[in-house]
Amino acid sequence: PIGPLLGILLTIFSNGVFKFVAIAQTRVETTPVQRLGRKFPHGTLFEAAVICATGPVAVMLLALIVNAMASMNTFAQAVVDIARYFSLLSLVPIPNLNGATIYFGSPLLFSSTVAFVLALFMVIPFLSIGWSLFIAALLAVIIFVVHEQFGFIKS
Length: 155
Hints:
Elements: H1 2-13, H2 45-69, H3 74-89, H4 98-105, H5 107-123, H6 129-150
């Protein structure tokens, strides 16, 4: 349980400036009975990476929707800020967080997911839903292509 302890310590030592809210752990389990017709009886690292990548992306999309619906509500803005920080910081490749599972499952998926979430993290307060998604998707595709063509780590 390093997540809650790390979050509390970073918040205390930074005087509340740095908010580390990624306190969830990742554990993907599969049962061989439910994988009939698959090549491997247990889930692969790539499948675990895809599962873990959906969490931060879904939280960021939820923050985008809440931000558009309640622009002047201070409680809604606090929820959006917590969701943004949670989504971004859960992608840090620390063991037991989503970021480590995604990185070791597929570095290409990791770089694209980080680009998408980071772009949304930065533009949610300023742009509408459409422009935010467009810019984030465009940056993710650019990072995907650059990483695929010129990346040093081949997945």
